Amino acid sequence: MFGSAIVGKCLPIFGHRNVLLFGIFALSTSNIIFGMLHFIDNYICFTVFCFGVKIFDAFGKSMIMITSFSLIMN
């Protein structure tokens, strides 16, 4: 929700294509990292990294969503 507002403000500055590509990169990278988190043995470290990766994942999803809505409307 908050990421969408930030992406909406940054979209005219960086351009549709760049934001969409970075969103795809962020989403795919966060999914790969989230899949490898089971190698962390410490419970607290695992929980902190899970939240961090999911926040990064949410920003990637909001970049893709907002950019695709903007491109469809144009």
TrEMBL record:
TM segment ranges: 19-40, 46-72
Alphabetical UniProt keywords: Membrane, Transmembrane, Transmembrane helix
Protein name (Swiss-Prot/TrEMBL): Uncharacterized protein
